[in-house]
From TrEMBL:
<feature type="domain" description="N-acetylmuramoyl-L-alanine amidase">
    <location>
        <begin position="13"/>
        <end position="151"/>
    </location>
</feature>
<dbReference type="GO" id="GO:0071555">
    <property type="term" value="P:cell wall organization"/>
</dbReference>
<keyword id="KW-0961">Cell wall biogenesis/degradation</keyword>
<keyword id="KW-0178">Competence</keyword>
<dbReference type="GO" id="GO:0030420">
    <property type="term" value="P:establishment of competence for transformation"/>
</dbReference>
<dbReference type="GO" id="GO:0008745">
    <property type="term" value="F:N-acetylmuramoyl-L-alanine amidase activity"/>
</dbReference>
<dbReference type="InterPro" id="IPR036505">
    <property type="entry name" value="Amidase/PGRP_sf"/>
</dbReference>
<keyword id="KW-0749">Sporulation</keyword>
<dbReference type="Pfam" id="PF01510">
    <property type="entry name" value="Amidase_2"/>
</dbReference>
<dbReference type="GO" id="GO:0030435">
    <property type="term" value="P:sporulation resulting in formation of a cellular spore"/>
</dbReference>
<comment type="similarity">
    <text>Belongs to the N-acetylmuramoyl-L-alanine amidase 2 family.</text>
</comment>
<protein>
    <recommendedName>
        <fullName>N-acetylmuramoyl-L-alanine amidase</fullName>
        <ecNumber>3.5.1.28</ecNumber>
    </recommendedName>
</protein>
<dbReference type="GO" id="GO:0009253">
    <property type="term" value="P:peptidoglycan catabolic process"/>
</dbReference>
<keyword id="KW-0378">Hydrolase</keyword>
<dbReference type="InterPro" id="IPR051206">
    <property type="entry name" value="NAMLAA_amidase_2"/>
</dbReference>
<dbReference type="InterPro" id="IPR002502">
    <property type="entry name" value="Amidase_domain"/>
</dbReference>
<dbReference type="GO" id="GO:0009254">
    <property type="term" value="P:peptidoglycan turnover"/>
</dbReference>
Length: 218
């Protein structure tokens, strides 16, 4: 994970950009900034720039080197374009992905950030929304190409990878991941698995053996 900086805008920020309404989030909404040069710090600075006269805000912005939280995740921000009482605005955490810098790095940082937010809440990728889903705006535009949302699908896959496989690189391959420990021990005790290679892929023939063992237990 890149550094996560908490730098909240004041509640007195003009144009009601931090209304202070409490929020119990149910979704995470993804945006891209629409600006090919602005960094996370630039985006954060814009929220409190005296020349900014729009009622628009977000919770977290991420770029190639850091993530910045501008509004607490239990407060409303105006980012979804679905109105003052819209579900997107009232019940989702708004994440802005910067379009500047190294795109691959930025997307990896965003995937890790989003996976962390999902994990903390016990959520899956089904909780992810595009700005487009709330209001029809072509956003996050970096995931939109020739009328297709191919990049969006790929991003969700990258997040999924972080959720369930992202620890492959940093953890012992011979130890199950924390989320899998209980099930892994159970499968060993039941004699369904032999207890080796917890992070290897399962072949079709191995699955057949496990299914046979399971069927024959009864
Ligand atoms: Zn957007």
């Amino acid at each position: 994970m890149v550094p996560y900086i908490v730098d909240h805008i004041p509640k007195t920020t003009p144009y009601n950009r931090r209304p202070g309404y409490s929020m119990t989030p149910e979704y995470i909404t993804i945006h891209s900034t629409g600006n090919p040069t602005s960094t996370a710090r630039n985006e954060r600075a814009w929220l409190t720039n005296p020349n900014n006269n729009v009622t628009a805000s977000w919770h977290i912005v991420v770029d190639e080197k850091e993530a910045i939280e501008a509004i607490p995740l239990n407060e409303v921000a105006w980012h979804a374009g679905d109105g003052g009482n819209g579900t997107g605005n009232r019940k989702s955490i708004g994440i802005e992905i910067c379009e500047s810098g190294d795109r691959q790095k930025t997307l990896q940082n965003a995937a890790e950030l989003v996976a962390k937010l999902l994990k903390e809440r016990g959520w899956g990728v089904d909780k992810l929304r595009r700005h487009y889903d709330w209001s029809g705006k072509i956003c996050p535009r970096i995931f939109h190409d020739n009328g297709k949302w191919t990049g969006w699908k790929q991003f969700k896959e990258a997040v999924q990878k972080e959720l369930f496989g992202g620890d492959n690189m940093t953890q012992d391959k011979n130890q199950p991941s924390d989320w899998a420990k209980e099930a892994w021990e159970w499968a060993k005790q039941q004699g369904l698995l032999d207890g080796t290679r917890p992070k290897d892929n399962l072949t079709r023939q191995e699955l057949a053996v496990v299914l046979k063992r399971l069927a024959e237990k009864k």
